Amino acid sequence: MSQFLLQCITLDGIEMSHCDQVRALCEAGAKWIQLRMKEATESDVEKVALEALNICEAHGALLIINDYLDVALKVGAGGVHLGTSDTNWKAARNLAGPDLVIGGTVNSLGDAREALASKSLDYVGVGPFRHTNTKKNLAPVLEKKAFAELLQFLGDLPKVVIGGVLPEDLPAISSMDAEGVAVSSGLLGEGTVAENLNNYLEQWPDEG
Description:
Distance between the termini: 13 Å
Radius of gyration: 16 Å
Number of helices: 9
C-alpha cells in the first residue's frame, strides 16, 4: 500500500464541535476521518455520527467510528476503530461482515500477535509514538527501536503511527515501514486546519 494514509481524528474539549471538525477536515481535503468522542454517551455519538457521515459522503471521505461497532453498523459508517478493551476484533468481523473497515490499536508485541492472529483487521494504529494529552490512560511510549521492530513484526498489515505525531516526524516514520499516521491535535490545534493538513501531506516522502 504505497498511498500515504492520513487518518484525521476528531478531538474532545475544543470550541469547535465534532461535526464542525469533520466539516473543516473534509473541506481541507481529508479523506479518512475518525470520529472519536470519548466523553459522550453512545446515543450522542450516534446522533453526531449521522451528521458526520453526511458530511463525509458529500466530500468523498471515509468515516470511521471510534469504539462503537454498533453505531458504525447502525448509521452505515465506513468503518470502526477498536482498542484492545473494546469489542473483540474477530467477533467484530463476524458481526460486521467483510465490507466494514476495521482497525485496531496495537501498543505492544502481544497486541501485535493478537492483531495478526485475528485475521480480522484492515489496519492497525501503532503507538504511542510520543506522549499526548488527547488520550486518557495512555499506554507507555514506545522506544524507537522497539517501535521499529513492532512495525516490522506486523508485516503486510497496513500500519498507521499514533500518538503525538508531528509533521517533521513523517520521513522517519515512513522509513520504519509504516503506511501513514493518525493525527488529532496536530490538525485541530494552532493554525488553520487546511494549513495543518497540508503540512502533514507535504512531509510524507513522495514515492512516485
